[in-house]
Specification:
There is one protein chain. This protein is mostly helical and 215 residues long. It has helices at residues 2-25, 29-45, 49-62, 66-83, 86-102, 107-125, 132-149, 155-168, 172-185, 190-198.
Amino acid sequence: MKRISGIGVAFTLMAGYCSLLIAETQLTPVEVITDMEQKGRIALEDQQYDKAYELFSKGSEAATDPDLKARFDFGRAVTLQQMAGAPKLERAARLYLDYLDDYPQSSAAKNNLAKVFESLGDLSSQKPSSEQDNEYYDIAVGFYEEAIKANDSNKGLYLKNYADFLERTGDWDNAKLNYAIMIRGYPISPRLQQTLRSQNCLPLTCPHEWYHSLS
């Protein structure tokens, strides 16, 4: 009986020790949500879009802090944008617009919205007798210009995105202006520098009339 009692005490102590370990390593609700956000970003970077979207969606449902919920919804929008296809792009656009309702100064959301409407325009242009592509492109122009005017640390990226869009849609004059502005103010790769030189768009040879609208 003493031996059995001793074993019982040992098990009790062991159970208590294990409970202590679990209690010490258990994540708080905030840490769980933060961990979920990190895992969602990793999945997005690894192009595991379904997994990323599921993690961001669960985080959005669980988050009680408005700023944290907004970050999850932004992640959902980015994921949908990467998944492409008109329905997903339209859902991404709605999420970005909702984000801008709460954070109207977000140049990142404006840049991403511009890319979304550019993609929707591309899809629309592939349909016979569709004229909606120009409407989408006009919206994209508006968001690109708003993102650039924010003048934040990513302005160089927004300028390049906008210039690439203008060049691709046939507005080469304005594309050259934006490439020139980008070269003057932001570092770019030697390869892009060479490309612009070959297209007669050196920084000092491009006109400056449009520059003031970016300030």
